[in-house]
Amino acid sequence: MAGAPTVVRNISDTALWAAHFRAQETRRPDALFRDPYAEKLGAQQGAEIARTLPEGQSHAWAWVARTYLFDQILQKEIAGGADLIVNCAAGLDARPYRMQLPATLPWIEADLPEILAYKEERLAGDKPTCQLERVAVNLADVEARRSFFASLANRGKRGVVLTEGLLIYLAPEEVAQFARDLAGVAPLERWLLDMHSPRLLAMMQRKTGKTLEKAGAAFKFGPQEGPDFFVPNGWKPIQIEGLLHTAARFGRPPLLLRFFAKLSDAHTWQIKRPFAGVCLLENSSAQR
Fold first, then answer.
1. Does a structural domain hold residue 51?
2. H or E element at residue 281
3. What is the pLDDT of residue 271?
4. Mean pLDDT for each 10-residue chunk of the chain (288 residues)?
5. Residue-range definition of the domain harbouring residue 126
6. Could you tell me if residue 63 is left (phi over 0), alpha (psi between -120 and 50 degrees) or otherwise beta?
7. Residue 17 in contact with residue 7, Cβ under 8 Å?
8. What is the dihedral of CA 215, 23, 47, 13, to 10 degrees?
């Protein structure tokens, strides 16, 4: 990730794209969150990437809503007793630094060696607010992933897994296997993720997706079943929040989209509509 790429070279570079939107939000006087680390993590390179992608600078409200919802739900889970956070494909997320977290909370970031090394270098002078660990692992490698998950078996009693911006790049069968592998780890009780409806996935594939596909970062996951896709794979949806509806509460999307938000349910998966949301799942084996 060294240098300043002007195009997405691989899937890891999408983390720079995300950093751009977090930095952009942070500069607003009415910011829904503040990420003072986004700039040093590559927001400038991310802005250059955004300019090269079709619609790469559009829909900032969706990126902001996603981050905001992850923050809000995660804070609630921690307040409710979560004692382990596992961020899979952590990318350039700076929550262990920017959020006020319990000092004793174990937080594990798992991602490819290159992006973790880049991140560690950029944040070398900063101190996390929790007990941060980084684990270099290729989560696409099934055996390596299972070995990593197995290492979590005795790490806590109420773990929360984050996969922000990950699943859309996986095929449905890959997501199903990932879900089953996670479900087999008893301490991991909750899973916080984002996902898209088939209609929205198709729209994204026709535009930005064509460029990302050339870099090996194709958009793939938008199941007909919506969050219920995870039920036969060991997880039960317990909360669904729409990105558009969340952003509309703060007046972020264009007026037409805000009007559309009023006509639809913020908590119901809309297969035939361009719907995206953040979902909280519960491990079926953890239900009491």
1. no
2. strand 276-283
3. 66
4. 55 82 96 96 84 73 96 98 98 97 98 96 97 97 97 95 96 98 96 95 84 80 95 97 93 86 70 86 80
5. 60-286
6. alpha
7. no
8. -20
- Residue 215: give its domain's CATH number: 3.40.50.150
Assessment of whether the complete model's pTM goes beyond 0.85: yes
Per the structure, the count of domains in the chain is 1
CA gap 112, 168 in Å, rounded: 17
- Give a yes or no: residue 87 inside a domain: yes
What tokens does 118 get?
């880049």
The encoded tokens of residue 139 equal 């989560």
- Report how far residue 128's alpha carbon sits from residue 104's, in angstroms, rounded to the nearest whole number: 11
Domain membership flag for residue 269: yes
Any domain includes 70: yes
CA angle 247/84/239 to nearest 5° reads 35
Write the DSSP assignment of 159-190 as a string of letters. Answer: EEEEETT-GGGS-HHHHHHHHHHHHT-TTEEE
Asked if residue 108 lies in contact with residue 130, where contact means CB atoms within 8 angstroms, the answer is no
